[in-house]
Fold this sequence. Notes:
The chain has 257 residues and is an alpha+beta fold. It has helices at residues 25-35, 44-56, 93-106, 129-143, 166-169, 182-189, 208-215; strands spanning 3-4, 14-17, 62-65, 71-80, 112-120, 148-153, 193-207, 223-225, 234-237, 242-255.
Amino acid sequence: MSDRAGAGLPDGYRLVTIAAEPDLWDPLDVLCSSVWPEFMLHDPIANGYWDRLRTEWPAFQLAMVDETGRVVAGANSAPLSWNGTDAGLPDGWDDQFERSIADAGAGRPAEALGALQIVVARDRRGRGLSAVILEAMRRSATEAGLGSVIACVRPTDKARYPLMSFDDYITWTRPDGLPFDPWMRVHSRLGARIVRASPKSMEIAAPVDKWREWTGLEFPVSGPYVAEGALVPLQIDLAAGRGVYYDPNVWMVHTVA
């Protein structure tokens, strides 16, 4: 998929790969950084390997460009070996990314495409662009001969219910039977099935002063704190001088071929 209009794209929009237009990598990165809570930008696995996406798998990095040339949405993914069983799925987002890197280094053949993120600019949300780019990711997998897209999905609305059980939240449904969470719903509408929760999908640990900087919160005592954008409470340990946040995700699997 070097450059195509893409089903559902607004007039004048383009959906291209970084392989086709390498100069879009930097503006895509800027967009990605702008839509996440600050603390989510400090996962050591993501920061350690992110540039490998551009050099090793540019054909799987997608940028959506509007009629002015601005990158308004994007998607990142990397292939990995997967035996096709639910038990064989990675532990979470961090483990998935590490597996892709390890598989590439060992020369192991890939059977699945691992979704890493899909982002849409804040001023372009609510227009169905996330579904368009998710479908494009699925199509990329098919064109590469991969049978599945595996996604450790971050339920977007869970941040509105940070004290609710994550296991319970991902089972919530609407009257029509679709998932309550809008991002899970997009995946479900495109045929993904819910497999299981990944309660410690991503680990972000840092000194307390960094958490103050990232969240704007003060931490008078040790314990759990609700940070804006977090899906579950952040745990602060003043004696250790550290805070740890585990971002919970839910595994959803698309069969595409």
